[in-house]
Amino acid sequence: MGGKNRLMPHASNIVVCDGPDSPHAFDIVPIQPRNGSLDAVCPVCRGHGQWNTEIDLVSFRCKRAICSRCLGAGWVETGNDPVELPDIEMTAEGYPHWVIRQVPGEDMAEQERSDVPLLPPGT
Ligand SMILES: [Zn+2]
User: Fold this and answer.
1) How many CB atoms lie within 10 A of CB 76?
2) Is the CA virtual torsion 71, 75, 77, 83 positive or negative?
3) Which residue in 24, 83, 85, 117 has its CB near the most CB atoms, within 10 A?
4) What does the pLDDT read at residue 100?
5) How much distance in Å is there from the Cα of 86 to the middle of ligand 1?
6) Distance of CA 58 to the CA centre of its chain
7) What is the 71 CA–ligand 1 centroid distance (Å)?
8) How far does residue 56's CA lie from ligand 1's centre (Å)?
């Protein structure tokens, strides 16, 4: 038996995911709890809200992308119900305060958000 041991002590097996359809896109990504006002599991991320763009199948370190369809909620509105988004507005006195913006559900689907930074967790 002359087989060589090819396992390395610090092996990594990094898989790059092109999107939510990649085989490992949802590895170790939890399903998001449903937000009471939302209707259906997001068709893009299937309720996860985000997916791996890169994952190491040995250490499970990963980089993730936020879903642009549900903005990370994992759930979406169906139909034309407005979606509530938290936002900051300036009052007349010049103080910022939180408001809830109502956005039609259909508009959310058309938003492109490519500016979401990718942060590897746990570093
Ligand atoms: Zn989604």
Assistant:
1) 23
2) negative
3) 83
4) 75
5) 18
6) 22
7) 6
8) 22
Counting Cα atoms < 13 Å in the Cβ hemisphere of 61 gives: 10
**Which pLDDT does position 2 carry in this prediction?**
53
The pTM assigned to this predicted structure is 0.57
Q: What is the spatial distance between Cα 107 and Cα 101, in angstroms, rounded to a whole number?
A: 13
Reduced 3-state DSSP string for the chain:
CCCCCCCCCCCCCEEECCCCCCCCCCCCCCCCCCCCCCCEECCCCCCCCEEEEEEECCCCCEEEEECCCCCCCCEECCCCCEEEEEEEEECCCCCEEEEEEEEEHHHHHHCCCCCCCCCCCCC
Q: What is the mean pLDDT of each run of 10 residues along the chain (123 residues)?
A: 60 94 96 86 95 96 95 86 75 86 61 54 57
Token code pair at residue 99: 């408001």
pLDDT given for residue 87 in this prediction? 82
* Ligand 1 geometric centre to CA of 112 (Å): 12
